Amino acid sequence: MRRFEDRVALVVGGASGMGREISLRLAREGAVVYVADLNGKAAEAVAQEVAADSGKAVPVQVDATDVTALRELYARIDDEQGRLHVVHSQVGLPGPPGLDVAEEKFDWIVDVNIKSAYYVATIAFDLMRRTDGDRSISLTASTSALLGSPYSPLYSTTKAAVTGLTRALALVGAGDGIRVNCIAPGSVETPWQAVLYQGASLAEVREQQQAYVKANVPMGRAAQPHEIAGVVAFVASSDASFVTGTVIPVDGGTVIQ
What we know:
This protein is of the alpha/beta class. The chain has one domain: 3-Layer(aba) Sandwich (Rossmann fold). Helix content is 49%, strand content 15%. The protein contains 9 helices and 7 strands; from the N terminus they run βαβαβαβαβααβαααβ. The protein has helices at 17-28, 40-52, 67-81, 103-129, 143-147, 153-174, 193-196, 202-216, 225-236; strands at residues 8-12, 32-37, 56-61, 86-89, 135-140, 178-185, 247-250. Strands 3-2-1-4-5-6-7 form a 7-stranded parallel β-sheet, with helices on both faces. β1 (8-12), α1 (17-28) and β2 form a beta-alpha-beta unit. α1 crosses α9 (225-236) and α4 runs parallel beside α6 (153-174). The chain is globular and about 45 Å long. The two termini are 34 Å apart.
């Protein structure tokens, strides 16, 4: 299935974990994918994977909290492609535990989790309004936005902001046919789990995660990154042409308990 043939996509935070799988999935389905990431070497590695699979990808090093850099990225896509059909933001950081958060860290988490989502999405509108066909923007929240997280109130707050942004931008884009949706993953097996569990070994991370999912996930396991990518690809495709303003939990049933 090549739902994105002759389409141009941008995945911000597209070089590792879920973002990497999303970049690979969109490319396999025919998109020219701009793989944008703070880690430029990782973005290059993903582009090489895409090329090895006969796809097309362009690696870009970008800081998603740098508004000038984002404007330059969109200008580059406009110059090189003249159109943009799909934008997905996978940028985000886990919040620090507890209530006592240093102001500097607070500002950093807010910048990465809210500011980047806002500007990745809003700057896209100009080029997407000049693009024909189905167009989709998707952002990434978390089930922590829907349930709350006593582990990190700050993280829950920033991800809840992304769900509000999604709904507002969906109304802004509806008249132009630009759809805006939000993916809310639950527990996912990615390298970030080591961060969430404060630098524990891989074995310790898996043990703690298994205990968490056994207690909280009805399906009894964590998601794999490719399962998140499949949902993003659906939302970005014309199969979801009448879907906008939604927040889609991908969590094995966690939020329905």
